[in-house]
Every structure is written in C-alpha cells, then in structure tokens.
Amino acid sequence: MVSIGSLYSTLSADELLEKVIPFYQIGKVKNCILWESGFNDTYKIEGESKDYILRVYRFGRRTLDDIEFEIEVLLHLKSKSVSVSYPLERIDGKHITPISTAEGLRYVIVTNFAQGKPFAYDTLDEAFLYGKHVAMVHKATEGFNSTRKRQILNEGFLIEAPLASIENFSGVSPEHIEYINQLSSKLSVRLATVNSHELDYGFCHGDFHGWNAHASLSDVEFFDFDFCGFGLRAYELSVFRWSARLRGKEKERWEEFISGYRSIRSIKDVDLDLTTIFMAIRDIWLIGQHIDNTKVFGRNWMNTDYFDKRIKFLKELESEIFSA
User: Where in the chain is the domain with CATH 3.30.200.20?
Assistant: First the structure.
C-alpha cells in the first residue's frame, strides 16, 4: 500500500454540523449542505428560522491575517449599515474555527445568508442599484485601516503573478505566452503615464462582477469578499464592465451602473478612462487564477479553445485601448 498526501479534500457536511456549528451562536440547525465548491467551499446551514453560510477556506490559499482582515472589513461595513454577509461570533467571542483536515490546517467562518435573490438584469434598474451599492461600500470604507496583512491589488498581484503562472503552464502555446507578455508590458507602460495621485485608491471588494450579491426591492447584500484588498477603484469598477462585456451586455449595463455609483459617490473621468485597460488586466489575472487552481479543478478544460477565446477577447480590448 502507498500513502499519498492530499491537496484538497471535500469535508463532510454532517461532521461540520456536528463538530463546528455548535461553536457558533445560531440556535438549532436542521441541516448542513455542501452548496458550492470553488476557490473555497461553501456550505448552506439551514436553521429553524434563518439560514447561514459556512465557508471553509482552502488549505494554503489564505493566511490567518488574510481572513482576519476580511472579517474586520465586514464588521466595519456592518457597523456603517452597509448590507453584507457578516461573520458570526462563536460562543467564545472569536470568529474563526481552525480545523484539521487531510491536507493540513484549514479555517472556517460562519456568516448570515444574504437576503434577496441573485441579479437577473432584466431591467436597467438592477445595474443602477448594483452600482449604487458598490459606491456605498467605497464610501463606508473611506479611512478604513487594518493592522492585518492583506494582498494589495497592484501590478504585482494583477499582472506579474499571473504572468509567472502563465509562463510556467505547459498547456498554453509559446505564441499565446508571447502575446500575453507583450500586451502586459504595453498595459504597464500605459498605466505608468498616469499620475497615480490623481486616481481614487482605497478598499476594494475585488470581485464586483455583477453577482456576489443578492437583491431585494431596494437593497443589495454583498458577499464573497475573498479577493478584497486595497487598490485602485478604476480596477474595482472595471470588473463590472469586464463581466458585462463578456456577456454582450456592456452597452445596457455599464452606463446605468456608473449612474447608480455617482448617485452616492463621485468618481472622476480619469478613473473611468482606465477601466478599459483594467478590463484587459482583469482577464490576464483570471487566466493566472485558473492556472493556479488546475491542481484542484483539473486542467482538461484549459485547452486550446479556452486560450483562443481569451486571446480573442484580449485582442479586441488591445485594439480599443491603443487606437484611442
């Protein structure tokens, strides 16, 4: 018999219900269900009167400081009356539960379940509402600071790290690697021409792509702050525009999103002018994220078709950026 280590294990919902849930002040629980597996694992806890979310952070992906920063900002937003899925306290007043798994130490937090429904974008009002509440997050975090170390959403994180992953990935052709490298250099040079002191900088959710939120008639509740950190708000806003363009809905959603944002908080044209550049950077970053997770997600889907589509999208953005 051969003993082999584990990179990623799916934890038993029944054992989480039995061994972890009792630490939290949520009363009687009827069930615990594996809800979604992704960059982290999400379990839905069905209570007698309310539902909750239990998140299990993947081994080695987030440090304790990373998670504590996320908890701090969520509690800060809650204190400012911004609707977010906030972390619940344990009976001992802590928020994080360390657990021993096959691959090593992992961490658990429990949050409330976001009220409302996922956005359908059937009307322009939804893009306006989403933009309005993104601005509320930015406004509420002005002046927010933490003693915890956290990733900065800078060129090192958004460009250099993914480039290193792409260059070391055997599933991408040398031609595609060369193109992405050349485009990344051009994007960095263009960014360097902008006076960074003119740009809006602060806390960013990092993944405001139009989902990661549930909506009711007048409110939006955000969740999944896993990619949060400090960075340029031009990048933050570009993520929504990038997502809308990928779905062929940029014309319908982007203008309304910005109108909603500006109904709460100002944003300068110099920031908005950079969103096209950051859409390309976001796409390169995502390729790197996908590559980094192939050991868990598998790599068969990251085939020629995947890279051809990504390159096509990037070339369309390149033409738009550098013809202006």
Answer: 13-113
Q: Give the pLDDT score at 324.
A: 62
Residue 87, C-beta contacts closer than 8 angstroms, at least 6 positions apart:
71, 74, 75, 95, 109, 110, 111
Residue 83 contacts by C-beta under 8 Å, 6 or more apart in sequence? 115, 133, 219, 220, 221, 222
Return d(Cα 307, Cα 291) in angstroms, integer. Answer: 11
| 13-113 is classed CATH 1.20.1440.230 | no
Place of tokens 């269900």: 33
Identify the CATH number of the domain defined by range 118-322: 3.90.1200.10
Tokens of 264: 């709460």
Q: In Å, how far are 219, 242, 263 from 275, measured between CA atoms?
A: 26, 9, 19
Alpha-helical runs (H) found in the chain:
13-19, 64-79, 124-140, 155, 161-167, 174-192, 233-246, 250-262, 269-273, 275-292, 294-297, 304-322
- Positions of CATH 3.90.1200.10 in the chain: 118-322
The CA distance from 202 to 206, in Å, is 11
Angstrom distance (rounded) from CA 95 to CA 249: 39
CA angle 104, 212, 12 (to 5 degrees): 35
Per the CB < 8 A criterion, the answer to whether 180 and 286 are in contact is no
**C-alpha angle 211/217/218, rounded to 5°?**
85
**pTM (predicted TM-score):** 0.96
- 94-148 pLDDT, tens digit per residue, is 999 999 999 999 999 999 999 899 999 998 899 999 999 999 999 999 999 999 9
Q: Is 143 left (phi over 0), alpha (psi -120 to 50) or beta?
A: left
CA atoms within 13 A on the CB side of 321: 23
The Cα 109–Cα 98 span in angstroms is 9
Alpha helices in 82-223 (DSSP H): 124-140, 155, 161-167, 174-192
State the virtual CA torsion across 103, 106, 111, 114 in degrees, nearest 10: -40
Separation CA 97–CA 64 (nearest Å): 11
